[in-house]
Amino acid sequence: MNKLIITQKDQVICTALAEGQKILQLSLEPVRRKAALNSIYIGRVQNIKKNINSAFIDIGEGITGYYSLSDNPRHLHADGTRTTDLKQGDEILVQVARDAVKTKALVLTGRLSFTGRLAVLTAGKNGIGFSSKISDQAFKKRIRERLSQEDMEGFGLIIRTNAKDADEETLMEEIYSLKGEYERIIQKAPFRNCCSLLYQGPASFLAGVRDSYSSQLEEIITDEPNLYEQIAAYLEKEQPEDKRKLRLYQDPLLSLKSLYNLDRALEDAVSRKVWLKSGGYLVVEPTEALVVIDVNTGKYSEKKTLRETILKINLEAAEEIGRQLRLRNLSGIILIDFIDMAEEADRKALLSYLEEVVKKDPIKTTVVEMTKLNLVELTRKKIHKPLHEQLAALRGREEEAKENWV
């Protein structure tokens, strides 16, 4: 069972997902954040780059986003019209689909989507998909049959993991609530100015509450009365079944941050070296193009054969790498240099185990292959900034931000 810890220092909110005393995920965000993920704006086309088939869209407050013309063949204009042509100065509806990462602008999309606890609804698409963590075929068939009777033309749906524990009517109510939100935005857009914010994406800590697996969430804890009230209001409206899980922490002798050792977790999450229980260690190197992780035997001293030693360290490393990807929010292309194994059976066992580990990650992570150089390739979907960039953005440079939390 997991606990969601939400605390604040100065103007920074820290959200942590803990399993026992082990931190699985961490995120930091300013209290007043510009261009939150999933927010919808009326953007103005600043310029169009035909050589990369994309446009750059101004959404106000000095923020410009990247808009792929390949991924967005049709454009929803503020006046309600839809076209396949786009020119400089056009005002269109866009949504923040991905945070800015390093030197890259944030990514915008014209396919407006709305995320709920049980489902994600996307306008301009058709079809029904299910979370990869839902394996119940009878459930999928029943939901498909029910949705085929509803008016969902022009809307795509993804049924989220939490839906498998909810009743059918609750799921349908949420889907129509999401659809209603889309319709309200379309109706008010023609009467709003350019760069207006039409829909505010939820704060990171509320998204953390929404996206937690209900069956695995034991408690939501905060020591901030203001945050407690916001979470309580959200739960009352969106997740009344989880209201009992919310607790206001009030111990004057031991802070919530200290109780869960968040300062140490933050230290670990930006450290280059990660020690394993066996004495081996990882070296984690995020670069501009990809993330490289090296596995080393380190201080391992058990009296086993060389083959057994290498396999044991690699399996332990695979488990820890799964946690580190979530903890640090590393994404994109990831290369892992495991300790070389001579036996094909051992290599297959390692890849199989790694696949099981990354299935626990709520963000889609795929084990691609082991190359001829014995490097394991992974991909992890890019959504939020990695933790080290969140730190750098909040305090100007990594060390200043880290010291403010420790």
Report on the structure:
The protein is of the alpha+beta class. Helices cover 30% and strands 31% of the residues. It has helices at 137-147, 168-188, 204-211, 225-238, 256-259, 262-269, 306-328, 344-358, 387-395, 398-405, and strands at residues 2-9, 12-19, 22-30, 40-49, 54-60, 63-68, 75-76, 82-83, 91-98, 106-109, 113-115, 119-123, 127-130, 155-159, 197-199, 217-222, 246-248, 273-275, 281-286, 291-296, 332-337, 365-370, 376-380. The chain starts with a strand and ends with a helix. Its cofactor is Mg(2+). Residues 38-111 form the S1 motif domain. GO terms for molecular function: hydrolase activity; metal ion binding; RNA binding; RNA nuclease activity. It holds the Pfam family RNase_E_G.
In short:
It is built from ten helices and 23 strands. The protein is of the alpha+beta class.
Tertiary shape: globular
> Any low-confidence stretches, pLDDT <50, length ≥5?
397-401
Please bin the fraction of helical residues.
25-40%
Q: Write down how many β-strands occur, each being a DSSP E stretch of 2 or more residues.
A: 23
Number of helices: 10
Distance N to C terminus? 27 Å
Tell me the quaternary state: single chain
Integer average pLDDT: 89
Strand content: 25-35%
Q: Which strand order do you get reading across the main beta sheet? A: 18-19-20-21-23-22
**SSE-based structural type:** alpha+beta
Largest sheet: 6 strands, mixed
> Rounded to an integer, what's the Rg over CA atoms?
23 Å
Could you give the topology of this structure?
Layout: E1 2-9, E2 12-19, E3 22-30, E4 40-49, E5 54-60, E6 63-68, E7 75-76, E8 82-83, E9 91-98, E10 106-109, E11 113-115, E12 119-123, E13 127-130, H1 137-147, E14 155-159, H2 168-188, E15 197-199, H3 204-211, E16 217-222, H4 225-238, E17 246-248, H5 256-259, H6 262-269, E18 273-275, E19 281-286, E20 291-296, H7 306-328, E21 332-337, H8 344-358, E22 365-370, E23 376-380, H9 387-395, H10 398-405
Parallel strand pairs: 1-16, 6-10, 13-14, 16-17, 20-21
Antiparallel strand pairs: 1-2, 2-3, 4-5, 4-9, 4-15, 5-6, 7-8, 9-10, 11-12, 12-14, 18-19, 19-20, 21-23, 22-23
Helix pairs in contact: 7-8, 9-10
InterPro entries: NA-bd_OB-fold (IPR012340), RNA-bd_AU-1/RNase_E/G (IPR019307), RNase_E/G (IPR004659), S1_domain (IPR003029)
Keywords: Hydrolase, Magnesium, Metal-binding, RNA-binding
Cofactor: Mg(2+)
